[in-house]
């Protein structure tokens, strides 16, 4: 008898049934007035879990989920300097409308399957995973402030901690995204209640840790006051920089994953994504025709 290949906690064929499951939910979501919806929860939905003291939101295109996503989520759940105690809840959030990114090359249903695989593998890292809950959710909103409001409507007034990279911080604080006034008033509303944990992104494009620290320090000195920002974001630790990849660790990006998949370099692929996500990309031949 042939042993059925497994991905995460499910056999491959069972996981493939999830494609149809997510496709149906996405179709329903797109036709409703809802702007935020939880599609799947592990191990149990919020209503059946201990009430979380803190909500962590990892908002990404997940195209695909990478080891960087895993590291950001794990570090936040374990090392958040302001909220060390469980229970905690993580939202893996996929925006079906993104301000910068088109809907390609992997379909949303495939991305949601990979997000579920990532969630399974993330939970396996915690000894007492009943104290950690993960929700896979979608939103129609492209911007953080709108997303935060829709999350409040679903979960209540718990503090939200948005997990972002330094590159995303620069976009969050870029006034070009906030028409018609083009100031940071929407970010003021967001950071009056919630926080961002910002992972250093050290490469040629974004500079060194010191350069990134200098940018955040400039906010504390009033560098964004004329754009509607406030130095209190840093002084009150609404914006906190946290460790990214360690020295010597492979730099990870979704672009590198797609390049490895397209070239058929499975060894490189497995250095960039979790085992389960790698198996799914290979089994579904994702990104092989990515132009």
Gist of the model:
The protein has 291 residues and is α/β, with parallel strands linked by helices. It is 40% helix and 17% strand.
Tell me what you see in this structure:
With 291 residues, the protein is α/β, with parallel strands linked by helices. The chain is 40% helix and 17% strand. Helix 1 (12-30) crosses helix 3 (108-123). The longest helix is centred in the first third of the chain and has 19 residues, at 12-30. The chain is globular and about 55 Å long.
Features:
alpha/beta; 9 strands; 7-stranded mixed β-sheet; 17% strand
Helix and strand topology:
Blueprint: E1 6-7, E2 10-11, H1 12-30, E3 36-42, E4 54-59, H2 67-79, E5 88-95, H3 108-123, E6 132-139, H4 144-155, E7 159-165, H5 166-172, H6 185-193, E8 195-199, H7 209-220, H8 232-235, E9 239-242, H9 254-263, H10 266-270, H11 275-283
Parallel strand pairs: 4-5, 4-7, 5-6, 7-8, 8-9
Antiparallel strand pairs: 1-2, 3-6
Helix pairs in contact: 1-3, 4-6
């Amino acid at each position: 008898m042939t042993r059925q290949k497994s991905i995460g906690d499910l056999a491959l064929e069972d996981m493939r049934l999830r494609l149809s499951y997510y496709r149906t939910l996405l179709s329903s979501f797109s036709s409703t007035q809802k702007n935020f919806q939880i599609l799947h929860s592990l191990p149990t939905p919020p209503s059946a879990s201990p009430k979380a003291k803190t909500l962590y939101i990892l908002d990404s295109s997940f195209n695909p989920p990478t080891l960087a996503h895993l590291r950001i989520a794990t570090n936040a759940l374990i090392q958040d300097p302001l909220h060390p105690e469980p229970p905690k809840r993580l939202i893996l959030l996929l925006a079906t409308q993104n301000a910068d990114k088109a809907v390609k090359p992997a379909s949303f249903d495939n991305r949601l399957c990979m997000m579920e695989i990532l969630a399974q593998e993330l939970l396996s890292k915690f000894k007492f995973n009943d104290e950690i809950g993960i929700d896979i959710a979608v939103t129609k909103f492209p911007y953080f402030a709108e997303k935060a409001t829709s999350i409040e409507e679903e979960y209540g007034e718990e503090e939200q901690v948005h997990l972002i990279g330094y590159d995303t911080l620069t976009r969050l604080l870029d006034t070009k995204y906030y028409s018609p006034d083009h100031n940071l008033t929407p970010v003021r509303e967001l950071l009056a209640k919630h926080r961002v944990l910002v992972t250093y992104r050290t490469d040629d494009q974004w500079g060194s840790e010191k350069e990134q620290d200098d940018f955040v320090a400039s906010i504390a000195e009033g560098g964004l006051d004329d754009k509607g920002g406030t130095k209190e974001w840093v002084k009150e630790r609404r914006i906190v920089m946290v460790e990214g990849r360690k020295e010597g660790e492979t730099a990870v990006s979704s672009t590198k994953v797609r390049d490895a998949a397209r070239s058929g370099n499975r060894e490189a692929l497995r250095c960039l994504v979790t085992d389960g996500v790698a198996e799914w990309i290979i089994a579904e031949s994702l990104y092989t025709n990515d132009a």
